[in-house]
């Protein structure tokens, strides 16, 4: 019996489809296809992709460290002009991490700046109202505290930044754009960078990385390949406001020095001489290289060792105070330079101060006192 042309065409089509499916089934890495709910045949993978040792290590670090990372929401109170009722307005969000089992959370100062209320969300999605324990705008660091059980708090493992090498792997965990617990990886791109804080003070020794850091990552941990904290993600350099391959983190050695002070005193207790200084701009206008002492505090170390501040002489003329030009042999050109050198010491340490008085260059050893 002769088949119609349409039936012969249908048989050839079914034969071609069967041959194609046979090739798929017999190809390496595939199992026989299963029928989906819509009647289509779905090829099944024979086995999951095997992870490399490096991938497995990264996953392990993320799964362990993410328990220490928190989401921070910053809200301000505003009053309705018609009803006069108060209501909360979101100001922004960021990241932080658990510092201690007493509920201390470390983040950036700019994350909580201007907040009337702060909410911290732990990795298990429980929320807590947080209070500000202490803040240091000059280093863009702040410490919060929440009332959570010790069992719910997993402090981050503290590393060190002194032994970091350019090229070593780093991991950043944060909440960019409100997306919780996002991991990015990269390397240490450079060390010893300087950036400006909100208070316009220079932060020294900053870590530069190409691990993607975006808005919302601020205050999150920068980790080494072992999951140890090596820095706090703080700023990005970008013309568009999004990450462009250059991010900065405050080094953990700085964090480890400042955070205990913020927990204990609520602020950073700085070592100093007990002096007020003439602004750099005025010193430059007068052609002075160094830092001019404006006033010496009564009873201060500076008074005890004989430093002089500015004073008015006869005829209404102003005589400049002593000009500090070096500390421990390291040059001082700006107020930032002087403060950075002082902060490398503790209260009670002795430093060698070099200063200019008139045409004489003098030197004195001074023990440092606590200053605000």
Briefly characterize the structure:
The protein contains 7 helices and 25 strands. It has 372 residues and is an alpha+beta fold. It folds into 4 domains: 5-45, no CATH class; 63-152, Trypsin-like serine proteases (Thrombin, subunit H); 157-265, Thrombin, subunit H, CATH 2.40.10; 270-371, PDZ domain (Pdz3 Domain, Roll), CATH 2.30.42.
3D structure, described in words:
This protein has 372 residues and is of the alpha+beta class. The protein has four domains: 5-45, no CATH class; 63-152, Thrombin, subunit H; 157-265, Thrombin, subunit H (Beta Barrel), CATH 2.40.10; 270-371, PDZ domain (Pdz3 Domain), CATH 2.30.42.10. The chain has seven helices and 25 strands. It has helices at residues 5-26, 53-65, 109-112, 252-265, 280-285, 301-304, 335-342, and strands at residues 30-35, 41-45, 69-79, 86-98, 104-107, 117-121, 127-136, 141-145, 157-158, 169-174, 182-196, 202-209, 221-224, 228-236, 247-251, 270-272, 275-277, 291-296, 311-312, 318-319, 323-327, 330-331, 350-357, 360-367, 369-371. The strands form six sheets. It has a six-stranded antiparallel beta barrel with strand order 3-4-5-8-7-6. It has a six-stranded antiparallel barrel with strand order 10-11-12-15-14-13. Strand 19 and strand 20 (318-319) form a beta hairpin. Residues 20-43 have low confidence and may be disordered. InterPro entries: Chloro_Bact_Ser_Proteases, PDZ, PDZ_sf, Peptidase_S1_PA, Peptidase_S1_PA_chymotrypsin, Peptidase_S1C. Residues 262-359 form the PDZ domain. This is Peptidase S1C, HtrA family.
């Amino acid at each position: 019996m002769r088949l119609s042309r349409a039936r012969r065409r249908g048989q050839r089509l079914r034969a071609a489809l069967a041959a194609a499916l046979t090739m798929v089934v017999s190809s390496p890495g595939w199992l026989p296809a299963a029928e989906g709910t819509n009647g289509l045949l779905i090829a099944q993978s024979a086995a999951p992709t095997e992870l490399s040792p490096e991938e497995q290590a990264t996953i392990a670090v993320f799964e362990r460290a993410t328990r220490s990372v928190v989401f921070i929401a910053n809200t301000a109170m505003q009053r309705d002009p018609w009803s006069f009722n108060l209501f909360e307005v979101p100001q922004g969000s960021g990241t932080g991490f658990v510092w201690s089992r007493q509920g201390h959370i470390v983040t950036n100062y700019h994350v909580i700046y201007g907040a009337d209320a702060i909410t911290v969300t732990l990795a298990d999605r429980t929320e807590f109202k947080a209070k500000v324990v202490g803040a240091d705008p000059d280093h863009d660091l702040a410490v919060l505290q929440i009332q959570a059980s010790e069992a719910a708090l997993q402090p981050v493992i503290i590393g060190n930044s002194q032994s970091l090498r350019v090229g070593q792997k780093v991991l950043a965990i944060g909440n960019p754009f409100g997306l919780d617990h996002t991991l990015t990886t990269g390397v240490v791109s450079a060390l010893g960078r300087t950036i400006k804080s909100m208070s316009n003070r220079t932060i020294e020794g900053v870590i530069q990385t190409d691990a993607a850091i975006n808005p919302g990552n601020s205050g999150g941990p920068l980790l080494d390949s072992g999951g140890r904290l090596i820095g706090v993600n703080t700023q990005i350099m970008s013309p568009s406001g999004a990450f462009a391959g250059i991010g900065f983190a405050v080094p953990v050695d700085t964090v480890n020095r400042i955070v205990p002070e913020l927990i204990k005193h609520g602020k950073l207790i700085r070592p100093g001489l007990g002096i007020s200084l003439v602004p750099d701009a005025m010193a430059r206008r007068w052609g002075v290289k160094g830092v001019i002492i404006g006033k010496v505090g009564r009873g201060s170390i500076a008074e005890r060792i004989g430093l002089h501040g500015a004073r008015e002489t006869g005829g209404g003329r102003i005589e400049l105070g002593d000009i500090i030009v070096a500390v421990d042999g390291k040059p001082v050109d700006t107020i930032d330079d002087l403060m950075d050198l002082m902060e490398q010491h503790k209260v009670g340490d002795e430093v060698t101060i070099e200063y200019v008085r008139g045409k004489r260059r003098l030197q004195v050893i001074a023990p440092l006192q606590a200053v605000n």
